[in-house]
Amino acid sequence: MGTEIFLIAFAYLLGSISSAIVVCRLLGLPDPRGEGSGNPGATNVLRIGGKKAAAITLIGDMLKVLLPVLLARLLGAEPGVQALVALAAFLGHLYPLFFGFRGGKGVATALGVLLGLHWLAGLLTIATWLLIAKLFKISSLAALLSLLVAPLYLWLLLPQRAVLIALLFMVALLFWRHRSNIKNLLQGTEGHIGSKD
To answer: Cys bridge to 162: 52, 80, 123, 189, which one at CB 3.0-4.6 A?
Structure first.
């Protein structure tokens, strides 16, 4: 029981480290919470700091959730515990303890979770994101559609109920965090990849 509690707490605390804020501080860039869209995530860092800063942010956001999930698997945690660890890391990113509970929208972290739970499900979701992003040039649309089909990929490859329920909850939270983007998409005003808007 102690190991499980440690894994869940560790996952939340690691998830609470905002890669966007840390990267921007290290590179001398403005705080992403006060620039661009105001979201501390890779897409906003791309707007205010360029591709290098965005890439570092993206990798950081994926690794901080991938590592605790892999650790849980390495220690032989049962699927239910793995699901809670994944969810805790994801919630840490959305509601970070270290940054006033004001976090990102969860796209990169969701991808990191998927890679940790089943690498192929993660790669399929990333491939779906890349395809939709290439076709429509809209980051939020690619994120929403790729994560919408992610539970199907995971269920086909890892049919474990607890893990699927955790992922569905994450996807629901991700859609909630993107509600302004969804509104913009419906109105045709959502910004395109590479734009400064």
So the answer is: 80
